[in-house]
Design brief:
The complex is a heterodimer of chains A (about 280) and B (about 300). The longest helix of chain A is centred in the C-terminal third of the chain and has 39 residues. In chain A, helix 3 crosses helix 11, helix 6 crosses helix 7 and helix 10 packs antiparallel against helix 11. Helices cover about 75% and strands about 0% of the residues of chain A. In chain B, strand 7, helix 5 and strand 8 form a beta-alpha-beta unit. Helix content of chain B is about 35%, strand content about 20%. Chain B has a single domain, classed as Rossmann fold, CATH 3.40.50. A 7-stranded mixed sheet of chain B has the order 6-7-8-3-9-10-11, sandwiched between helices. Chain B has a 4-stranded antiparallel sheet with strand order 2-1-4-5, with helices on one face. In chain B, helix 2 crosses helix 3 and helix 2 runs parallel beside helix 4. Classes of the chains: A mainly alpha (about 280), B alpha/beta (about 300). At the A-B interface, helix 8 and helix 9 of A face strand 6 and helix 2 of B.
Chain lengths: ~280, ~300
């Protein structure tokens, strides 16, 4: 018997993967042509009257070719997967960083001051549930640039979890620690950086982790809407090309990149985590 | 006129309520001399912690004022170090870093090495060594954490050290060893200490004087009991001192019966809002020291207290 849960879990994952890929592969077999087919029928997919999802073997083959040359650029509608993902990541990080620059200081203010909390709370409660894509027309009208507009949409969707978590983290810093700062005559600036920030850091980073997850969800939709570049545009473009293999491949890539972004923030959260 | 190091005058704390104010304590007046170790004992809810927080500058009294070395206490200051019951260490910092945090705030001009060396000296003084100084508070036992907290307070070399039931959460064995360390450090540094405790034996072991508070609401500092036992004191031999039992009986008797009787009297309408009064000076060990057989606490000096 294998004792380690880790190894057993990995084995089970492999088995599940092989079974599901196998079923998928089998279900997408084309039926054998029983009689000679016309040239027209060949063009339409042979004897198969039904459009089928491409099998995993096709997807893997495509993944191999795409990933072995991810950064080629052969014109506006033919760019490597790496370039498309790069655009999306750039937009997410730009919008996310802008949001952090505003959300963390404002969250500090709200968390420190019950007055500011009460004054700003109605705005936050109204603005927060708005679907970020609903801002898109307004953003396009005011900014007049699709690239900047999608960064704005990322900004607006990632600001709320960071703002709320920062405010919550700052407000729930233990009073004892603030008293330690007071009895050591720290000024407001020192208290903020030496006591409140480290105490609230795990909560703030959890907010950032939620934000980057939402931002990665939204960028795909935003890029489908504005077009041009990015992984969202790529998915939609391949759908228009009826290239389902590329669609599946890019779906997988979206998942992988999303996972990596989340892992990065999870690592950062662990670095500032403390045990009481 | 002789000026006391710490003077507390007519301190009171009240919370406004629907039917009149809730007076936690009032007319609390007492003083501390430089280098004195004073414990304050009273039942829960008499406002001991509030008094300590007022001395620390963390809380504002409803009335009365506090002077330290002639200056009024208006806010927190590095001149008054505080050790809280729950240690209040910053959990993301190591023990050493918790102490250097205090020293850096106190001595902004010192070099890094100087701060570190000074902090390590105090950590060693309370018995933290062999790698414990680099561990985070969560990896230390309660006793170790309280030692770090005490080291932090001592290392900032405050004029007055305030201890809020520092051993309340510790088991008896740990409490004993840390009490010994506290005695040792106080003897070395001549630190002025004001400490809250619930433990009569602890107060006798550590204090020069014990302040006794009546029960709240309308609590007062009723007595100031001199602990006339020679230093250095030792927990194993202190019980053999002739003054030990007279003092102990006096304190226990106060806590068991008189704290309530005096409180009942204070709650009478005509007693409320009276003039600030100094606590009654009591020296239950005096007879024992003079070589007389120690009297049971119902006699002699105590009658004077009750007849007050």
């Amino acid at each position: 018997m294998i004792q380690s849960t880790g190894i057993r879990a990995a084995l089970l994952s492999m088995v599940l993967l092989v079974i599901s890929l196998g079923l998928w592969e089998l279900s997408s077999f084309k039926p054998e042509a029983t009689e000679a087919v016309s040239e027209y029928e060949l063009l339409m997919g042979g004897a198969d009257q039904e459009a089928r999802v491409p099998p995993p073997s096709d997807v893997l083959r495509l993944a191999w070719t795409e990933l072995s040359n991810p950064f080629y650029d052969a014109g506006p509608n033919d760019k490597g997967i790496g370039i498309q993902l790069g655009y999306s990541i750039y937009r997410v990080l730009a919008g996310f960083s802008l949001a952090a620059l505003i959300a963390i200081p404002v969250g500090f203010l709200i968390g420190m001051s019950p007055l500011m909390y009460k004054a700003l709370n109605p705005f936050i409660q109204v603005l927060r549930p708005i679907s970020p894509l609903a801002w898109m027309p307004l953003a396009l009208f005011i900014i007049k640039d699709s690239e900047t507009s999608s960064i704005f949409v990322i900004f607006i969707c990632s600001i709320w979890p960071m703002l709320i978590n920062t405010a919550f983290g700052v407000a729930s810093v233990r009073k004892d620690w603030v008293n330690v700062a007071r009895t050591h005559e720290l000024n407001a600036f020192q208290t903020a950086f030496q006591v409140i920030l480290p105490a609230a850091a795990p909560t703030i980073l959890t907010g950032m982790r939620i934000s980057i997850g939402i931002a990665w969800l939204v960028i795909v939709a935003a890029e489908m809407l504005v077009g041009g570049t990015g992984i969202g545009y790529y998915v939609w473009n391949e759908w228009n090309n009826l290239d389902l293999t590329s669609v599946i491949f890019s779906i997988l890539m979206i998942g992988v990149v999303g996972m990596l972004l989340d892992m990065a923030l999870a690592t950062a959260t662990r670095a500032v985590q403390y045990q009481e | 006129m002789h000026q006391h190091f710490l003077e507390v005058k007519g301190l009171g704390k009240r919370f406004p309520g629907k039917d009149g104010d809730l007076v936690v304590f009032e007319n609390a007046s007492f003083s501390l001399e430089r280098g004195e170790f004073v414990c304050i004992i009273g039942h829960s809810g008499c406002g001991k912690s509030t008094i300590l927080n007022v001395l620390a500058g963390l809380d504002r009294p409803s009335e009365g004022e506090v002077y330290m070395a002639g200056r009024e206490v208006r806010g927190p200051s590095l001149e008054r170090g505080v050790v809280f019951q729950n240690y209040s260490l910053l959990p993301w910092r190591s023990s050493l870093s918790n102490v250097t945090f205090g020293v850096r705030a106190r001595r902004p001009g010192w070099s890094k090495a100087q701060v570190r060396e000074h902090s390590l000296r105090y950590l060693h003084m309370v018995g933290l060594k062999d790698g414990a100084e680099h561990r985070k508070p969560a990896q230390l036992s309660g006793g170790m954490r309280q030692r770090v907290s005490i080291a932090r307070a001592f290392a900032t070399e405050p004029e007055l050290l305030l201890l809020d039931e520092p051993f309340g959460a510790l088991d008896a064995l740990t409490r004993g060893t840390i009490q010994d360390e506290l005695l040792k450090v106080c003897a070395e540094t001549h630190q002025t200490v004001f400490m809250i405790t619930h433990d009569v034996d602890e107060a006798i072991l550590l204090a020069d004087r014990v302040l006794l508070m009546t029960n709240g609401p309308h609590a007062r500092v009723a007595e100031s009991v001199r602990v006339s036992i020679e230093r250095p004191r030792d927990r194993t031999t202190i019980v053999h001192d002739p003054a030990y039992y007279p003092i102990r009986n006096h304190l226990v008797d106060f806590l068991v019966t008189r704290s309530r009787e005096l409180a009942d009297r204070a709650r009478l309408p005509e007693a409320s809002g009276g003039d600030p009064m100094e606590p009654l000076e009591v020296d239950p060990g005096a007879d024992a020291r003079a070589g007389e057989p120690s009297l049971p606490p119902q006699h002699g000096r105590l009658m004077a207290v009750n007849g007050n």
